[in-house]
Amino acid sequence: MTRRVTVLAVAVLAASLAQGAAPTEAKEAKAGRAPRGKDRAGQADRIFVNGRVWTGEPGRPLVDALAVRGTTVLAVGTSAEVRTHAAKGTDVVDLRGRFVAPGFIDGHLHLVGGSLSLEALRLDDAFTFAALAERVKGWAAVHPDAHWVTGEGWSYAAFPDGLPSRLQLDALVPGRPAFLVSYDGHTGWANSMALRLADVSRETKNPPGGEIVRDDKGEPAGVLKENAMELVGRLVPKRLPHEKESALRRGIAQAAAWGLTTVHQAGSGEEEIELLAKALEAVPRLRVYAALDIERDPTADVLARQDELRRRFASDRLRVGAVKGYVDGVVEARTAAMFEPYPGGGTGLPNWTQEELDRAVAAYDKAGWQVMLHAIGDRGVDMALTAFERAARANGTTGRRHRVEHIEVPRPADLPRFKAGGIVASTQAMFPYPNQNHLGVYVPTLGPERARRALAFRAIDDAGAVQSFGSDWPVFTAEVVRGIACAVTRTTVEGTPPGGWEPTQRLTLEAALRHFTRDAAFAEHAEAQKGTLAPGKLADLVVLSQDLLAIPPERIKDTKVLLTVVGGQDTWRAKEF
Ligand SMILES: [Zn+2]
User: Fold this and answer.
1) CA of 475 to the centre of ligand 1 (A)
2) What is the 28 CA–ligand 1 centroid distance (Å)?
3) CA 522, CA 423: separation in Å to the nearest integer?
4) Up-side HSE of residue 203: CA atoms within 13 Å toward CB?
5) pLDDT band at residue 361, thresholds of 50, 70 and 90?
6) What are the backbone angles phi and psi of residue 455, rounded to the nearest 5°?
7) Which of 121, 181, 416, 532 could form a disulfide with 152 if both were Cys (CB 3.0 to 4.6 A apart)?
């Protein structure tokens, strides 16, 4: 077995393919499937034998060997069959029973935010105020020169009332402004100095789509919801492009180590797309399918500018094909749009009226874009589905594969609309992770009736929808085996609660794998090129330390990614492999 780690060739970003068309490499591969020369006919560059290869192909889901030639899969089959493709110079890898799957595809993450989170003040899993306080004080102590103390990931569960106060943060960070963002990115926690610098006082009105939480005297309490976050957020020193780019390089390498071969970037401005292109050229270990930020008023000029980006970035390394917008907020901040009030009152904060949303979606649909809409509450999900259905009807379009992102609390009656409208259900495998935030804040905020129909992965599958899994990194880790473990067990890594939270919604292992491979490929119009292992498909694959189909579900989380391959090239190799 070789221990060679090859790094991918520099990405070629010049191809100018229409959205949804076959990416470059796979096209070449199809054209080149006829032998290039008689002596090279059927000869593999590398073969993997004696493994357990889950291909994701319904006709032949399990084989034990696979051959790769160039950037694509040459053959799958028994070890004896595949060995017929070996010749002098073929690298033969004896898998010794290890598990191979198509390369993992994360259908929804934020690569820049995730990458920056690898080095930032992270407050994840600090479920008590004491744990959180220790981390904030610790970070502030080792960063005495930072003008601001900023961080993210705090959980609503760390606070008895579900929300923090500025006075608590004043005690932790007395001499500097501080601004800490919740784990879901929808709520900001500011200290008094930060509020003062931002001129947020009792006289300040709530901005549209946002809320300044007040104490019982009417003073800002230190909590800024949704669009109100910007009041303080705009003062926080922005990361410089070169800082973002170096973070991105680390983030891309980390993604490869998690077994990811493609990720879907859920919304970016033009500048961020350029940054991604640069980082992917420097560290070509990942494919990125990117959505641009949706524009509320997509005039002809706006569409022309976005279309130019779509034409420029159309390779299978970085492909722009969608726009992404937010219909509503999140459950814990009670900003997800609901039909019925939250237990504490209010029905959420939609960012659009139905008419505004219909108009924007129809314009993008007409111009050939896939539209991705964040929608969490039942009313938000209905608004997104309605806009997609109306756009298809008005424009006479089919096959756009518009996507609803998150779909946390849909009405059961709305689930068949996904299949009927060809709409992709883009969910996040770790969202039902039953930690203290989930059980102590998320579930009570929904109330019992809604909690029972929340994060209903099995019901979505049963309704015949194509369900694509993602992580929403940095909201949750993008470590795919953790996501699979959560979707299959619906327990924490400690195994709680016994049997799992809402266990009827647990998925089979095969379903979870399919959502992270073939279905996520479908969600980016690329199932003909990737997402399963079959001759002619891109050689994007992972080798795992244990056979996921044979082990008990509680052991899935211990699985190690041993090797990640993108287009035939190794992008990650564990020391022990
Ligand atoms: Zn997201």
Assistant:
1) 8
2) 33
3) 11
4) 3
5) very high
6) 50, 50
7) 181
Map residue 239 onto helix, strand or coil. coil
Over residues 441-477, the pLDDT tens digits come to 999 999 999 999 999 999 999 999 999 999 999 999 9
Q: What protein residues have CB closer than 5 angstroms to ion ligand 1?
A: 266, 472
Give per-residue pLDDT as tens, 563-577: 999 999 999 999 999
* Pairing state between β 187-190 and 210-214: unpaired
Task: State in Å: Cα 462 to ligand 1 middle.
Answer: 25
What ranges make up the beta strands (E) of 357-511? Answer: 370-375, 403-406, 424-428, 467-470
Distance 71 CA to ligand 1 centre (A): 31
Greatest alpha-carbon span in the chain: 84
Counting DSSP H helices and E strands in the chain, the numbers are 20, 24
pLDDT higher than 90, residue 245: yes
Residue 23 banded pLDDT, cuts 50, 70, 90:
very low
Cα gap 252→238, rounded to integer Å: 21
pLDDT at 40: 52
For residue 113, CA distances in Å to 151, 152, 153 come to 12, 10, 12
Centroid of ligand 1 to alpha carbon of 509 (angstroms):
24
If one counts every other C-beta atom within 10 angstroms of the C-beta of residue 182, the result is 25
Round to whole Å and give the CA distance between 331 and 343: 12
Looking at per-residue pLDDT, the higher value among 26 and 207 belongs to 207
Ligand 1 centroid to residue 110 C-alpha, Å: 6
Collapsing DSSP states into helix, strand and coil, what is residue 287? strand
Span from the CA of 368 to the centroid of ligand 1 (angstroms): 23
pLDDT at res. 398: 96
Distance 410 CA to ligand 1 centre (A): 18
% of the chain with per-residue pLDDT over 90? 86
Q: How many CB atoms lie within 10 A of CB 466?
A: 23
Could you tell me the distance, in angstroms and rounded to a whole number, from the CA of residue 380 to the centre of ligand 1? 15
- Please tell me the pTM assigned to this model: 0.84
- Candidates 82, 5, 89, 22; CA nearest to 535 is 82
The alpha carbon of 99 and the centre of ligand 1 are apart by a number of angstroms equal to: 30
Distance 184 CA to ligand 1 centre (A): 9
Sequence-distant (≥ 6) Cβ neighbours of residue 205 within 8 angstroms: none
Is a pLDDT exceeding 80 seen at residue 166?
A: yes
CA 97 to centroid of ligand 1, rounded, Å: 37
**478 CA to centre of ligand 1 in angstroms:** 12
Structure tokens at 545: 């330390």
- How far is ligand 1, taken at its centre, from the CA of residue 426, in Å? 10
Task: Report CA(206)–ligand 1 centroid distance (Å).
Answer: 24
User: Residue 298: is the preceding peptide bond cis (ω within 30°)?
Assistant: no
* CB-based contact 525:107 (threshold 8 Å): no
Distance between CA 149 and CA 129 in Å, rounded? 17
In this predicted structure, the answer to whether residue 386 has a pLDDT above a threshold of 80 is yes
pLDDT classification of 12: cutoffs 50, 70, 90: very low
